[in-house]
């Protein structure tokens, strides 16, 4: 990893922080993102090697645009983006939440923020890793943002399948030499997200980090979904061109004012 500069979003705790520690120890220059500057600085304080920090609330897409501009200015040699930040299903019974832009919050943070940030940082990147999940659910075109029938688990699963569908589309459009992949690092790792949902961990954090770090270091595969260290099949909807076309149209509509022209 010694020649790589890697931006990891959502890296102040859990999988993101553990991945930052692993990559920094391996010699990468790590750019650690947190929701606030204080959280990012505290997380970076005890990491080895060279660690830089950036901050933005990814539930505010204007802040994501600003973050992208800052990263381009400060780290013009950025090699890898790990879209790791995410919101889980939440505790049972929690009602629907919206982002600063009025979008269902899990869809906004888990999916749309990564689209905006990635679009801002291309074409300088060589690798993009999207931290997705085995928990996947297709969008309902009659209620895609769950305005009529909300469930936190479904909101999370929709956002994660959207990530994978976007991964497949993006891999077909990025410049030669750029790879884009999605990964489910592990099932119910011991993270704050899992604890909030009241779920018993099943996969160690170390195993999840090892799987993601391996994908960060791979340049020979693109447009794929991985379960840990093995390539896997996502929900069949991910491979449906019509479903991906619908997602692209919805994404373009929601992000019309945030994406650069032609993105």
From TrEMBL:
Q: Which InterPro entries match?
A: NAD(P)-bd_dom_sf, SDR_fam
Q: Output the superkingdom of the source species.
A: Bacteria
- One Pfam family name is adh_short
- Which keywords annotate this record? Oxidoreductase
Record-stated family: Belongs to the short-chain dehydrogenases/reductases (SDR) family.
Show the PANTHER family listed in the entry: NAD(P)-BINDING ROSSMANN-FOLD SUPERFAMILY PROTEIN, RETINOL DEHYDROGENASE
Q: What is this protein called?
A: SDR family oxidoreductase
Lineage of producing organism: Bacteria, Bacillati, Actinomycetota, Actinomycetes, Cryptosporangiales
